[in-house]
Amino acid sequence: MDRVPAETIYRLTLNGQGGMLPLEVGAEIPSDAASWLHFDYGNPDAARWLINTPLLGETEREALLGQSSRPKLIRLGETILLILRGVNHNQGHRPEEMVALRIFITPDLIISSRRRPLLSEQDVFADLGKGIGPDNPADWLVEICDALTDRAGEFIDGLHDEILELEESVLAREMPGNGRLARIRKQLIMIRRYLSPQRDLVARLANEKISWLEEDDRRRLLDIADRLRRWLDDLDAGVARTAVLADEINNLMAEATNRRAYQMSIMALLFLPASFLTGLFGINLGGMPGANSPTAFWVFCISLLGLAVALAVWLKLRRWW
User: Fold this and answer.
1) Element housing 148 (H / E)
2) DSSP letter at 84?
């Protein structure tokens, strides 16, 4: 066995009762207890340890340090290599840029790595600190899948709340902020892109013939796969609802444009007779009525105003306005 490195985020052993015991840096990794070593593979020292440790083969190193971020399951005898995805809750990052969690797990050793922090890993570690965490690697695997699914579900619920708020606004004929609907649709599509293969992966994991996975673990994994399926159905429903919202917003915009164009047409119609008469009386030809009268201008203005009022009343009675 190798020794415990200092470059870990978490280094501990599972005490078999839901709690943990910390591992000392430089101590030999115990072979009689299940250990969990968690790394940030963006740390050069952590990456160097993962490359040089005899605990890992070439395939395992590539899985823990590789660039692939799609959910993946590789079985090597009684060893499992997993790449799972979790919602990105880091400040300044977009949630749909999901974080890859890479896992190497055997009956007595867990080595995991990621590039950015995940709330799901923190949830499992916090449970261990409270003494209500996983008892063994199989239980740990189920707990991490469960935590990833719960966090994804919370985010999807938040998206649906936003969609509901947008629907209420559109029904009240209020236009949403610029880009808000497009952002929600993008998040729905991107989250679905990663959760769909992850659902298949968890279902496949539950059916793998691995000796250290008990029936209760398989049942819980199938339950997680079923919850992921329900979240995927909700994502599909969200995509459909946002498509309807987009159509309704386009209809509102077209209606507003048509209404403005109609109002401009009515205004033009009101001024059309006045424009004709002012053009007619503006010609410089002899014989123009009232040319020599000092009151002719005011009589003409009052006549134009009366004509406009009469036309407006007529349009109102005809329900054009």
Assistant:
1) helix 137-171
2) E
Residue with tokens 């992921």, as numbered in its chain: 228
How many helices (H) and strands (E) the chain has is answered by: 7, 7
pLDDT in single tens digits along all 321 residues of the chain: 678 888 899 999 999 899 999 999 988 888 888 999 999 998 999 999 999 999 898 888 888 987 777 888 999 888 999 999 999 888 777 888 889 999 999 999 999 999 889 999 999 999 999 999 999 999 999 999 999 999 999 999 999 999 999 888 888 888 777 788 889 999 999 999 889 999 999 999 999 889 999 999 999 999 999 999 999 999 999 999 999 998 888 888 888 888 788 777 777 777 777 777 777 677 665 666 766 677 777 777 888 788 778 877 877 777 766
**DSSP SS3 for 321:** coil
E strands within the chain? 8-14, 20-22, 35-40, 72-76, 79-86, 99-106, 109-114
Distance CA 97, CA 119 (A): 14
Residue for token pair 């009589």: 299
Predicted TM-score of the model (pTM): 0.80
DSSP secondary structure letters along 173-231: T-PPPTTHHHHHHHHHHHHHHHHHHHHHHHHHHHHS--TTS-HHHHHHHHHHHHHHHHH
Q: How far apart are CA 249 and CA 255, in angstroms?
A: 10
If we measure between CA atoms, which residue out of 297, 312, 138, 265 comes closest to residue 214? 138
**Greatest CA separation for the chain:** 119
